[in-house]
Amino acid sequence: MAKILLEMKNITKTFPGVKALDNVNLQVEEGEIHALVGENGAGKSTLMNVLSGIYPYGTYEGDIVYNGQVCKFSNIKDSEKLGIVIIHQELALVPEMTIGENMYLGNERGSKFAIDWNTTYAEADKYLRMVNLEESSKVQVKTIGTGKQQLVEIAKALAKNAKLLILDEPTSSLNEEDSRALLDLMLGFKKQGMTMIIISHKLNEVAYVADKITVIRDGTTIETIDNHGTEPVSEERIIKGMVGREMTNRFPAREGVQIGDVMMEVDHWTVHHPLYPERKVVDDVSMYVRKGEVVGIYGLMGAGRTELAMSIFGQSYGVNFSGELKIDGKPVKMKKSVTDAIKHKIAYVTEDRKGNGLILSQSIKVNTSLANLSSLASGGVIDQDKEYAVAEEYRDKLKTKTPTVEQLVGNLSGGNQQKVLLAKWMFAEPDIMLLDEPTRGIDVGAKYEIYCIINDLAAAGKSVVMISSELPEVLGMSDRIYIMNEGKMVGEMKAEEATQENIMALILQSGRGA
Amino acid sequence: MENKALHQSNIRKSDPVAMLKKNAMLIILVLVYLFFTIMTKGRMFKPNSFAALINQNAYVYILGCGMLMCMLTGGNIDLSCGAFVCLLGALGGMMMVVWKWGTAVSLVAMLAIGIIYGCGLGALIAYVMVPPWIATLAGYLAFRGLGTSILGVSSTNSISFKDSPDFLSIFSGTLFKTPEGQLNMPCLIVGIVAAALVVALIFKSRATRLRKGYEVDELAMDVAKSVLGAAVIVLVMYKLALSGGIPTVLVWVAAVVLLYAFITSKTTVGRHFYVVGGNIEAARLSGVNTKRIMFLAYLNMAILTSISAMTVISRFTAANADAGKNFEMDAISACVVGGVSASGGAGTVLGMVIGATLIGVINLGMFQINLDANYQRVVKGFVLLAAVVFDIVSKKRDS
Hints:
Distance between the termini of chain B: 24 Å
Helix content of chain A: 25-40%
Oligomer: heterodimer
Largest sheet of chain A: 6 strands, mixed
Largest interface: A-B, 35 and 31 residues
Largest sheet of chain B: 2 strands, parallel
């Protein structure tokens, strides 16, 4: 048996209100490619952040043993000194700088006082050849494509004398051909004795490249599957580990809700990326939602779900729209304006409540009234007593835990912030609610309460579209489920027909077919 | 459990430490005032010091309101306002003195020029998306040169308003003028009425909130607020009554400050300034027209700069090339010392007024104890820095 290079023992990491990792164990042998798989939010990235020192020693429990020694990293430099180098999912290159400058950013060649550019570019070129790149290191990064940029990231890691290379979703922004080249490069490195950890959603790639596969679910390690057999391990086998959890009473029943006529419908809806207008982010999507119905949209990260919802919501995302939007059977020509969307009784409850949902520096009251402030004002003057009463009403209705509605939203827990966000949009009195990851980052108890609120909305005849990356949630809450992948609707199922396995299989098939 | 108890009692418990922190600048203002009163052997407390404080700082209060609105949108500033005061003053001089247009026509024309500049600047910032400090830096560089070249028609590089008594009486006259040292009754009566109004407003709002079952402060808090507010108003008006009457510029300042206090705290448009500064994306996705708010901030700033220009040339009875120098910095300082967030989304008109007054008191005090002008600048610099550090540190403790 080969030497164990890295062992992470009983790692537990808590964020305020959430246990992100719970007694996670991971063993990586020298010279192997080890894959980490799991759903969004299962804790893979958190684990790697612990390993690379982004979460310093002392902020987690458990031990990291590397090369037989217990490590206490206080920052990313400490782990890099030992040859542990992480390549993040989002490319961290400065577009305006040359490849060489990027590769030695923060690790400059030369003396303390001056950079030695000759050495920099000579060494950079050497590493570029190692990743099969022909480009000169004096070329600006913005002039090469994403696939090559990913290779530059790897060359950059090699320049740091990497012994253990961690790749977080390295192929998520690459096409089929570039992905295959990258995977083959990894296999080449393995032959030279490099140890690698790969995080990926693409299970076919994992099966192709990995020696061992560790499955993480809900912050705990489920199993480690050996992939040394003559046949690569089947994707079904991996999926079973990823999703196989019990479902008992995590979702409140929705009883006696009358599902009515179609409320909103989009036909052949296509949206392009705002920065790369040739790229389709939402590709010929058609869907509908009825009154009193909860429709789930499932897909992996980057499937285009958020973009679909935001483009329906007053074209607040994207450019070059085509397709038709019908509300209550009538075609609607919506302007590029959120105000217009609100006027058409649509609400979009964002997945990013801190980033673009709430104003953390303002009170619950101010946040609650924001989307429908004009209804509380006459002649532009706000009736502040009425505003207070509204905030109180929603605090009661949604059971938001706070001493007063004058409390700043930034001081609330995630679950309570989510309730304030919902309150804001419920007060706007929409008929159609687009909920984007309504339970992200909140604890189980608060999730249940949010599910009850969703049920109440459906019971009140609202049309609810719920976007979620959590399969059990989609299955437990939806009347009907759409499955999205790479900008396209790849399937539609009734809740009764849907299982975790057949949804995952649908996504994987569509990914391979493309 | 605890939440419920608080909710039912409907009385917001006051926390002494939080109270001190919240009113720190007010307390510092009082202490600084006392310090200079002692250092000047009481001269700082004389009626003409009060009059001087108002006359010298009128422009800071007016520009401060405009700068507050800009800063609320996300720490944006207007560097051009001081230079624009100079340009507009020069144009006003040409209209009133050289071309003899008459006071009313000239004032309307000055305001119109301000509005045109504000629309242009606002459009550049909101719709062309030029960063505010660059857009206004251009005006900062250009306007004083333009103003000075206009003033070149006169051999002294300045135009005097000696012969425009109407104009002077509007912006730098005195209402109900009486000889100095004699108690001016109308002035005192205005003060008492204003004080009574403040007290009445505080208790009317308290009564409404109690009746509707909303949270209120402890009674002692409201009483303290009323007593303090009324006392300050009556004291200032009493001192002014002894110095000859109400300066007309105080009426302008009071009107602007009250209007902006109302806009920022009671109106939808004012609320939108705060939410844009708090989180512009969240504001946009909640249906706030964020570009319109940016536009309004700079249009509004230009209008207030115009009014400020009128008060300043009137006070100096002349338009000259130095008018408005460093006004932008004075307005920014007043806001920052008054607790307006340098990153936007937080700050009040009352805070800005306290900040402006504090700086004004320090300036006047340093002048009265004959501190070297160079050291006066050093002190001002450190006061500004101390205020910001204090703000950041006290916020860090909270979180």
